[in-house]
Structure formats: structure tokens, C-alpha cells
Amino acid sequence: MRLAVVVNPLSGRQQGDRVAGEAAALLGRAGHTVVVVPGQTARERSAALRLELESGLVDGVVVVGGDGALHGVLDVLIDSDVPVGLVPAGTGNDVARTLDLPLRSVLAAVDVVHAGRTREIDLMDVDGTPVASVLASGFDSKVNERANALRWPHGRLRYLRAVAQELRVFEPLPFDLVLDGVPLSTEAMLVAVGNGESFGGGLRICAGAEPDDGLLDVVVIKPVSKAELLKVFPQLPAGRHVDHPAFERHRVRSARLSSPGVVAYGDGERLGPLPCTATVRPGALRVFVP
User: Fold this and answer.
1) Is residue 85 pLDDT above 90, yes or no?
2) Phi, then psi, of 116 in degrees rounded to 5
3) Distance between CA atoms of residues 215 and 209, nearest Å
4) 8 Å CB contact between 86 and 63
5) What is the mean pLDDT of the chain?
């Protein structure tokens, strides 16, 4: 195959280029032709990838990085039937988790691409921006806003520091939702819309969501005390929070979210203030899978 490799050099504490070099070498030794897509920013990489795809010579795309690296080129891939492979090199890698892709072995991730097995998955369209995993709003997005403003520490510790800071001031938020045309007003700690299960590096907020069922999982966490939120938070990786009385799920094809002063994040990337509307795009992306 002729493969276009897209890399975010800043992924995984600036390990993206190193991982991409290893992946490109392995793909070359396996007999594939590798073209590295240039670009230091997501916009540059997206534009360069579009040109490669328009040539008609690309058989597959390999994205090296995390969820943000994939998110940055989804606007190009959603218009193409060319399959995409993921070589995880980010801090979250939630799309890779959803697809049961190898997270810690570049060789194993490259072997998935080399084997050539593909699967069609859905995407969600958030006011024109494609999102592959989870749209987050509420406590989690406020934590992200804080974390992005912190210069220290790095990685998960920065996120945990932001959690501690936000907990001191956070209060339940008023949400106005429209789910498949049906209005719902409620107070909530957070509202997440999932095409996949997890965000934040394996926090399975939308546990049970399937990326190819033609539906979005809207999860509402109703108001709980801060002490209770601290108890529920550690349950997210295992998905045990789904049994909590504050957990509420709706499976829909479209969801409109509105809450004053709340910013939405998709695939871990800042999308902008609510309101926003998420709509499922069934079978919009073809991916290499084990």
C-alpha cells in the first residue's frame, strides 16, 4: 500500500516524531510505500493530507499521535473512503481504546495496518466539526479549561491538579437539552455525548457506547455532593458509575446542548462555548482494526 503518515510532533510529551520514524521504518520494511505528510500545526497537516488524498494515489492514512492528532484531520478523512490506522503516541488515546488497538507497542499497531482489516465506524458532527470519541461539557470541560491554563505539572498530574481546583468552586449547572427533538431541562454535574466510551485517557464516562451503532450515547450525571463526586470519579475507568443513581443515559441520533458559561470539548480539543448540536454520521470513517 501507499500510506500517508500524519504525525503530531508534540504528542506524548514531544515523542510524536520519534514514534512516527519507528512506524515509517517498520511499514517500509513490510513492503509499503510511506509518504510523511508535512506540517507543524493541525491546519497545515490537514491541508497537506487533503492534497495527498486528492492525488488518488493514497491507499491508507496512518495517524501517529493521540486523539487530537486524529481530530485535526477528521475534516479531510470524513470526505474520503481511504482507511485510517492509528499508532497511539498521545496521553489519552481514547479512540484507540475504543477500537481495541495496541496502545504501547508501535510494532503491534503497525501490524494492524499491515494486516489490512478494516471496520466502518460512526462520527459525530458538532456544528460542522467531526468528533470521533466524546463531546464533553460541564465539570469535565471546566477542568480542561483549568488544566490548559496551568503550566505545571505535566500530563495526568496537571489534570488532577485542575480537578482539585475546580472541585473547590464547582456547583451543578443548568442544562437545556434537545434529544431527537424532545426538550429536557435539568441540572447536572456534566453532560457527555459519546460516539465511543471514554475520554481523558480511559475514563469510560459513556461505558457501553458502540462506535458503529448509528447512535450517540448522551450521559447526564445528575447533581451530587462534592464528596460523592470524588467517590464516583475513580469508578470511571471500570465503568462502574453506570449503576449510580445519578447516572442517566439517552441513546439518540442528535443532541443539542445549552448551558451558560460552559465550553464544549471534543476528542480532548476545545470546540467553543455552548450551545452546540451533535449529530451522528453513520459509517463515516473506515479504520484499520485488529
Assistant:
1) yes
2) 85, 5
3) 9
4) yes
5) 92
